[in-house]
Design a protein that fits this description.
The chain has 413 residues and is an alpha+beta fold. The chain folds into 2 domains: 193 residues, no CATH class; 167 residues, no CATH class. The chain has 16 helices and 12 strands. Strands 1, 3, 4, 5, 6, 7, 8, 9, 11 and 12 form a 10-stranded mixed beta sheet that branches. It has a two-stranded antiparallel sheet with strand order 2-10. Strand 7 and strand 8 form a beta hairpin. Helix 2 packs antiparallel against helix 10 and helix 12 packs antiparallel against helix 14. The longest helix has 42 residues. The protein starts with a helix and ends with a helix. 32% of the residues are buried.
Length: 413
Amino acid sequence: MGIKLSIILNLSYFIAKRISSRGGDSFSGTIHRIAIASIGIGLATMIVSFLILKGFQNTIMDKIVSFGGHLQITKFTLSRSYEEEPISKNLPLYQDYSKYPFIDHIQDFANKAGLLKANEEVMGVVLKGVSPSFDLPRFKSNIVEGKFPGFGGDKPSTEIMVSKNIADKLELNVGDNALLYFIQQPPRVRKMTVTGIYETGMEDFDEKLILGDIKLVQRINNWPDSLVGGFEVFLHDFKNIDNYRNILEEEVGYELYLEKISDKYAEIFDWLALLNRNVVIFLSLTLFVACFNMVSILLILIMERTRMIGVLKAFGASNRLIRKVFIYNGMRLIAKGLLIGNIIGIAFGVLQSKYQFLTLDPKNYYMEYVPISWNWGIIIFLNVMTFLLVSLTLLIPTMVISHISPIKSIRFD
């Protein structure tokens, strides 16, 4: 039985290979090329879509996290002010987080609202005070000019970094001075020096945030060095943020508020989720079109080879053997299409990553060019899924073979 099955498989593959190799410039050759092109374009489109989607998600996530961490710890308050109630730096979690392996980094911060004045122009801003614990390597990709403010001495630093949006409106350049007014009783003012300019493309940051020394905020608020506005927690894995938040809630206690970054900027994360759904819908439609094309193309090939089918049946070939001929032929076309699709999709990703020739409007998309994020697991998954689903659809058109009469098919023209 095993030898017989081997002979059937080998014969089916041999005939399928002969049919494919004799296509040339004939009608069947044209059909083969259309099948390969449809599979290749479909796969390339799916690969590019997922590379761009992951690029969008990772780029926006990096921008948001660089400003606020994955989790923020602040004091519970009913106020909607940008300023926080002070928290002690003696919080055990801040002093030693090594017992939580899922935490990458924790840094302290404090916000203070004010008015920034330069060149007779005034803007409402929020000074975000940070300390030497600030994760500068994570933030560096946002810096477009100058350098990050230097601080860490005994006295509060008067250096600040402003957004490109604020710099343009106030006509500020690196090295310029500006007055920062703190609206309180009594009012206070400080002369600040711009050492750098950043840009994220995100209005929540670029419209109001400037970065400076946390000691300045502590001095203005009359806080001792042991008090800060809150803590930002960076995680190794964002996917399990809900579990990690529940664990840390028990650590920080109920008087402190532990907020996820996805809740604080819910509208942005909702937009990313909508993109996810759109890509899934697009993926489903692309696979449907590819499967439909293969069914149509295989039916055409069966009709073209009707006389051959009749001859094979007349010589005693079973329906199973003949069906395998066309299934093998279809799988060869799918494999060639996948190869071409991978070449096109990966080549596009490489070129876009290197030359960034597709640009975007930062006001609408938070970035200046279409981002690419490589994920070989997704690329392999798309290849396997496309091959399996399209191959399974080949069974549908081959069912008509069992209804073909040898006598009628030999006479078929």
